[in-house]
Amino acid sequence: MKQREYFLETERIGFSRWQEDDTDLAMRLRGDGAVTGYLCASGHFSEEEVLRRLETEIENERRRGIQYWPVFALKTGDLIGCCGLRMRGDGEYELGFHLRLQYWGKGLASKAGRTVIARAFEEYGIAGLCAGHHPQNSASRHVLEKLGFRYTCSLYYEPTGLMHPSCVLEKPAAGRDHRKTAGKCPEDKSAVL
What we know:
Elements: E1 8-9, E2 13-15, H1 23-30, H2 33-36, H3 47-64, E3 68-73, E4 79-87, E5 93-99, H4 108-123, E6 128-132, H5 138-147, E7 150-157, E8 162-170
Parallel strand pairs: 5-6
Antiparallel strand pairs: 1-2, 2-3, 3-4, 4-5, 6-8, 7-8
Helix pairs in contact: 1-3, 4-5
């Protein structure tokens, strides 16, 4: 296993950048049905789709300085998943995280999300973030609530063919904790908008 360089670290995780020779890592993450079951209607990505996503992440980093960065366990160097930012078509920045199954339920999505949110607000000067989740992924909904996101509406997400709850998080005013005034994302798409 090659030694990774981390541009950002917490006590347990390190953020790196996707590189062209990360094909095996990308396949390990995006070839995992437990992960991709929430990301696309078929429940899996072809090798071509995984490679195209890898190219997109590298291009996002090159053009905008952001991507869904690969996240690693500092103790073992193992790939945990990815967490980061992407620019949506409407110009909004979106927070996203995808973790490998063996890392679910360990608080790592929340930790990675908090780290990326701090970077977005403090270093990039972004005023607000959006995020969405598969309507059946209650764990992601819970993480977004913990991070302070509030539900706004459900939006059609073409890759799954479903309406996904969409949430927003605004940069808190000085001295305020955004998590104390946050709303809750709905449990399903039938929630009142």
